[in-house]
Amino acid sequence: MQSTNGVQENIGKIQSLFPDCVTETIDERTGELVRKVDFEKLQQNLSDVIISGREERYQFTWPDKKKAILLANSPVNAALRPCREESVDFDNTQNLYIEGDNLDVLKCLKETYLHKVKMIYIDPPYNTGNDFVYEDDFAESSAEYLANSGQFDEQGNRLVTNTESNGRFHTDWLNMIYPRLKVARDLLTDDGVIFISIDDNELENLKRVCDEIFGEENRIETIVWKNKYGAGAYTVGFISVHEYILCYSKKKILDITSELDEESQSVYSKRDEKYSIRGGYMTQPLMTNSLGDRPNLMYPIEHNGVVILPRKQWVWSQDRLQTAIDNNEVEFNLQKDGTYSVRSKAYLKDERGKIRRGKPLSLMSGPFNQDGTKEVRRLFDGKSIFDFTKPVSLIQKLLALQINNSPDNDFVVLDFFSGSATTAHAVMQLNAEDGGNRKFIMVQLPELTDEKSEAYKAGYKTICEIGKERIRRAGKKIKEDSPLTTQDLDTGFRVLKLDSTNMEGIYYTPKDISQADIFLLVNNVKSDRTAEDLLFQVMLELGAMLDSKIATEVVAGKTIYNVADGYLVACFDKDVTDEVVTTIAKMHPLYAVLRDTSMANDSTATNFEQLFKTYSPDTVTKIL
After folding, report:
1. pTM of this structure
2. Residue 50 sits in which domain range?
């Protein structure tokens, strides 16, 4: 019931004439994002001389960028609580599925998983105007954020859809993605890589964000991926059948290789009976005119009694070429003019019959999004539970890349926009095919499914429920398809859920507690938290991986947790006696943890330190 906004209409007219003069900023009156005219730029566009103004410099900025940086660096008081009943093979698996806001989860993982993730793949929400739901409240003060970080209710009050009426602001999207990538970079190993799927809407902005966070020199490639067969009947203009996958490294990568695809393999068409196990081969010339003069490459060779000189020089050194000739890896072809063509043989397979590797192409045709949709439908009995998920084979191709010629298939893979958990499916599938031991960490916000969707009607109320069920079904199918070779395949996962800290407020902010509250807070752990909740908190704080083996032992009726074969030993029961403390000390753990309310009496508390000095003086003790 309002008349049209004349200012916005006029801005639209200016934008049609001078697109570069309209930008995004925050309205000082409402605090909302609006489009405004950059009058300095407009003035310059309407002048035939240089207009003096702010100092020019190369920069990439947007409203609240500084707050986005602050958000990435701010600590979070949160806990990852284990959920055994939703996990698969909880005690033995090395895989993790974490529910919660991925920024807070990444912060929780940061210290323990610092420099431990070899590959990150993410398919973040695209800025299409209706599907990105992450909101970080920049209106709060720093102190308010630290107090509330990690908190959202069951209705998802922290989440706001980036609707069409919000104008598809680039600022909203940049403030969402920037802090998450900034924290994620710290998790990568030195030779780690990140792959990010994106469409045209934010490709250029994402490049500039990644150039800033990872370094422009560490941009490996912008892969163009033909992701669909065609378009719908209502397509206007070009039929868009591609997306992009940005690839960046933590540090400079010298080399990346992949197995040759079918098209590349087809050129190895010649046959050699002597090396039949190596399949076909192709040839490449060994003489060159393109190199600068190098006397050490100008030498004669002999074939069937004929001395052969290069037209200019050889590609290889004399020793290398002679070794190849002796191994029958060089082909001599007599030409019409009486000279010889000398070419090296490049075989499709190595001596063990394994297909050779080559440089991956920056253009990928398929697999297609439709293939990913079909994969999910097959797993969920033909139901359309999750449309246009990325296909498993696409992620497998990225997983199978070799960095710096290191054939590593035992590493951690992280996806913090997990969606339907395609990445987890791909990790298990590739491990089944090549015997690898890759581990996955999936992170997903428990975003509610649409009540009208087939997923909701099938009983899946959140995207997390879909992802977890997909992993269960995919793991089961992989083992059923190859029962003899997948007996030891890890298809389990530990479910952890982001929650507020396990500790009462007095633990972090004692200054805020009044004298009258003291006796209400004798116990500094929240009443609804279990011993395993505390164990996983301590594991993160003391650097134990969240997939570590956890053994339990009962002594004098008290449960003792032994994490990673003595790295950490803990007991959180009440009324712990000298007998229990002595048992823990005799296990010689690196760290030993008990609650401050655990001691049965003052005597045990007094003896605690002395018992460890006697039986395990090198153990670091901690009272929670």
Report:
1. 0.80
2. 6-57
